[in-house]
Amino acid sequence: MEYGILSILPPLIAILLALTTKQVFISLILGIFSGTLIITDWSFFAAVNMTLEEIVAIFSEGWITKTIIFSFMVGGLITVISASGGVQGFIEYLTKKRDVVKDKKGALLLAYITGLVIFIESSITSLVAGTVARPLTDKYKVSREKLAYVCDSTSAPVCGLIPLNGWGAMLMGVIGVQIANGVVEGTAAELLAKSLPFQFYSIIAIIAVGYYIMTGNDWGPMAKAEKRATEEGLLLRKGATPMVSEEATATPPKEGVTPNMWNMILPLVVLISMMPLSLYITGEGNILQGSGSTSVFWAVITAVTFAGFLYVLTGIMNLKEYIDYVYQGIGAIVPVAILLITAFAIGNVIGYLETGEYMASLVEGRVSGAFGPAIVFIMASLMAFATGTSWGTFGIMMPIGIQMAVAMGAPLYPTIGAVVSGGIMGDHCSPISDTTIISSMASASDHIDHVNTQLPYALANGALALVLYLAAGFIM
């Protein structure tokens, strides 16, 4: 059944309510309910039942369940690392022993560099950057919104530009289908590699983050947030609710423990190194064919287990204390998990309504080839904004984009790059995006405050990217 313009209503309702009420969970539930109302032909009780069933049904998807468990275990890992004195030791090393981080610029650069060098998976990138830098950005009165922006805008863009990860596997998979169907020629790796220079939004976003860190020339809501943090010492807006509790994000070292940065570095090294190893194993020897969801799941389980052995065997804490701290961290992540569950559920409902296909049908075959990359970028951005998923956007828009490019005579590589960049840009703007939610969690920021402060930057970067896609379309 085709739902036409009605398919746009559920994500629109969820997004508008989230931005106006700042109650993301309620907004997502109402978005899901509005979608099920449409699907059940406006039957109230049937829609209520379907809403509840859809929330339960997401656990039938293995990769979703692994992502949620991953979030829980990361909460436990962050808390137990803090309790071990690892975070405090790292801060003392950088600020007192080495005098490396002296001010807010240095603290933000630490998050920025961490985001650039850890390109194995966007969620891990955000979480590690936030965990490592947050104590220092708090110390130098950086707003949580600014840290969330740095974590968010150096995660997905970097993973997209350096696709030696699950992102690369996913993108080559959807491109490969078009090659197998005879739409285009070549290899998936070749087409993806040649499209990388045309991921204009990702490139601009990474450069922009560095610019705002180095110059401090913030504007719009971000400038107000930074002024509040600097002048009033308020890292969060009055009345704001951090995605995870302050107790969990600032767990003091266990009494009697000597701060030691290696108590943080070693578990994080295990977390990071397990990701490519897991991709290699799940890809049966091909890292680019590995399972991203399984790999992050294995990586965090291994890191939490390693931390337990490290802390217990070295006498930092006993087994009961270790388990208690892990439970404490898991408990702090419950609000995040609830938002992820409802975000995934509304994504499924939007899939039933075929929102993405309807949006793409509005322009397919109606424009000149020279406008192809720009049109695809706009459509991918709107789709990711409405659906809250960049990967879902890739799955829908990559076949459409490649087929449009061939039919319209549009340049192929910029079109592929436009699909990836558009998916990432829309994700950066959407309050129902799982990666945006995780970035809010990593920085302990209020989620809607993060969205509101990042949105103007993302739109400005997107406008510049759009101009470049227009230029590429006409020049090539």
TrEMBL record:
It is a multi-pass membrane protein. Keywords: Cell membrane, Membrane, Transmembrane, Transmembrane helix. GO terms for cellular component: plasma membrane. Residues 158-474 form the Na+/H+ antiporter NhaC-like C-terminal domain. The lineage of its organism: Bacteria, Bacillati, Bacillota, Clostridia, Halanaerobiales. This is Na+/H+ antiporter NhaC-like C-terminal domain-containing protein. The chain crosses the membrane at residues 24-48, 68-94, 106-129, 198-214, 264-283, 295-313, 325-350, 370-392, 404-425, 455-475. It comes from Halanaerobium saccharolyticum subsp. saccharolyticum DSM 6643. Its main location: membrane. The keyword Acetylation does not apply. It is found in: Cell membrane. It holds the Pfam family Na_H_antiporter.
